[in-house]
């Protein structure tokens, strides 16, 4: 019994220490430096995050951070598709943290992400864009408004009601 309690407390401690932490401040816009971050498109072309966001200016945009190796991302994929299906007037950007180009491309097909814009952080997880938004867990969602400002800074599930509430408010404008 004592051994079981010790294991339980240790497990809870590890979970608390290593689980995702919601950033203390929700940013509402991007600064210049992170927007210079280069990502690759599906044709292996380099593009800055500024250019990616500019493509969607004037539209409500959901950004989803994910990777094909990420169990939580995969388990939550159906919910992500439901969110997209419910919001046909919303653009979706998928930013991958896969370890290599081929795995990312296979993941796009396998998880049916072809109907959104797909980009890959070829430099890996640690980069100015991800550091600026305090990316500490995937999946992660952000909602960008029609002017390119951050409307919802932090959600880890497509079921997070704040994502839909944010979209609904932006659609009313």
UniProtKB/TrEMBL annotation:
Residues 1-19 form the signal peptide. Residues 16-172 form the Thioredoxin domain. SUPFAM superfamilies: Thioredoxin-like (SSF52833). GO terms for cellular component: cell envelope. One of its GO terms (biological process) is cytochrome complex assembly. This is Thioredoxin-like. Keywords: Cytochrome c-type biogenesis, Disulfide bond, Redox-active center, Signal. The keyword Hydrolase does not apply. It is found in: Cell envelope. The keyword Disulfide bond applies. InterPro entries: Thioredoxin-like_fold (IPR012336), Thioredoxin-like_sf (IPR036249), Thioredoxin_domain (IPR013766), Thioredoxin_ResA/DsbE_sf (IPR050553). It comes from Apibacter mensalis.
């Amino acid at each position: 019994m004592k051994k079981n309690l010790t294991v339980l407390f240790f497990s809870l401690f590890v979970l608390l220490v290593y689980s995702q932490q919601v950033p203390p401040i929700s940013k509402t816009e991007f600064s210049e430096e992170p927007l210079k971050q280069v990502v690759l498109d599906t044709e292996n072309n380099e593009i800055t995050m500024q250019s990616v966001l500019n493509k969607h200016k004037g539209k409500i945009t959901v950004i989803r951070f994910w990777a094909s190796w990420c169990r939580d991302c995969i388990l939550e994929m159906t919910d992500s598709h439901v969110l997209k299906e419910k919001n046909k007037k919303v653009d979706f950007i998928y930013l991958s943290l896969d370890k290599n180009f081929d795995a990312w491309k296979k993941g796009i097909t396998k998880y049916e992400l072809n109907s959104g814009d797909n980009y890959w952080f070829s430099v890996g997880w640690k980069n100015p864009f991800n550091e600026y938004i305090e990316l500490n867990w995937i999946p992660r969602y952000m909602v960008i408004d029609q002017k390119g400002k951050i409307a919802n800074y932090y959600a880890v599930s497509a079921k997070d009601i704040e994502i839909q509430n944010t979209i609904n408010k932006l659609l009313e404008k």
